[in-house]
Amino acid sequence: MGRVLRVAAARSLNTLGRQILSVAVGWELYERTGSPLTLGLVGLVQVLPVVTLFVPAGTAVDHYDRRWLSTLAAATTAAVGVGLALASGFAAPVPVYYGLMLLLGGATALHSPASASLAATIFPREQLGRANAIQSSLQQTAAIVGPGLAGLLLWGLDPAWVFGLVGLTGAASAVLYRTLARPPRASAGAASDRRDWRVGLRFIFASPLLLPALTLDLFAVLFAGATALLPIIASDVLHVGPGGLGVLRAAPSVGAVVMALVQSRIGAWKRPGRVLLVVVALYGVATIGFGLSRSFTLSLVLLAVGGALDNISAVLRMTLEQLVTPDRIRGRVSAVHFVFIGMSNELGEMESGVVAELIGTVPAIVAGGAVAILVVGVVAVRWPALARMPPLHQLKPPD
Predict the structure, then answer these.
(1) In the chain, is it the N or the C terminus that has fewer CB atoms within a 10 Å radius of its CB?
(2) Hey, how many other C-beta atoms are within 10 angstroms of the C-beta on 347?
(3) Domain boundaries, the chain
């Protein structure tokens, strides 16, 4: 349990720091420029490294000590915090901020596959599900606390001091990773596998379990995610203003934290594939209900339910990947997974905005939920092995 908490704390501190940086950088740059485009570019420069570096990041994770790579990524986050503190203190040009956020995106591209692969290496197979639930609960808590903490700090402190705090959280994360025992070295595997970056893609597309699980999550987030439209819902549908918007944004994470705590205390699912299909379908139903709701309370409940269902899906998907992936290619598989899931969030926000512009906000949300339900039916028919999947701890990587 000590190792579980150390890894969970290290990953959560990293998440907390990135959340604080995102809010603080956006606030300072918008105050300086008054341009919404500036905010969009902050997000873009963080996404670019995730897409462009997944090949070298995944390869590095499969060839080098994952503990050290996680430590390096966390230390880079700390360095970005210190760099932003100096940039803010000396009123550096805006491109300097973009450069530092680009570096943060590179650190994230390395940290995600390295830390996920590290957890799969050091925890016993039968404990992975519970360990992932604990990590998820702490990371979701960080996702809730981070933006609010950033707002409170910015209310009373100069942004430079807020950035400096991220230097401390990043350093603490790096120290926690460094105190972990050295993980066992991955088996070498075939020489062709060691050289070929495409082995992660081929493994995912050949897996009768991992591919449908990722497909479910990809399309559920792509079509049924309503986060990008919450400002419109808060302003024009529910009429609750910016304060209500903040509560709406927090509701899914609250639901996810509660469900993560529940999952950390219950036994393993006997039919995890069926559970995955059901929760994604229910996620679509909750999205439809949210789109049709005119009650602030009901909308909050439905968003929290959606967050809880998404947490079940995320924990099952993460544990499934860790258990069926051979350790020699784990980094490359995790890097591909991170690209697809990470990009689905960005593409989902774009899709929501385009569809809402064409047919209206409420119809766009309702249609997205309906598409998620349809995708569940298609996946269930196309990959029947998913519904028959045994308990996760019984799964093993292919020879």
Answers:
(1) C
(2) 16
(3) 1-185, 196-399
Alpha-carbon span 102 to 108, nearest angstrom:
10
CB-count burial class (<10 Å; 0-12, 13-18, 19+) for 183: middle
Query: What's the CATH fold of domain 1-185?
Result: Growth Hormone; Chain: A; (1.20.1250)
How far is residue 149's CA from residue 172's CA, in Å, rounded to a whole number? Answer: 18
Q: Which two tokens mark 323?
A: 């258990």
Length of the chain: 399
In tens, the pLDDT along 299-345 reads: 999 999 998 898 888 888 878 887 888 877 777 777 777 766 666 66
CATH number for the domain formed by residue range(s) 196-399: 1.20.1250.20
Contacts (Cβ under 8 Å, ≥6 apart) of 78 = 17, 166, 167, 168, 169, 170, 171, 173, 174
d(CA 281, CA 314): 14
Query: Is the full-model pTM beyond 0.85?
Result: no
* Neighbouring C-beta atoms of residue 262, cutoff 10 Å: 14
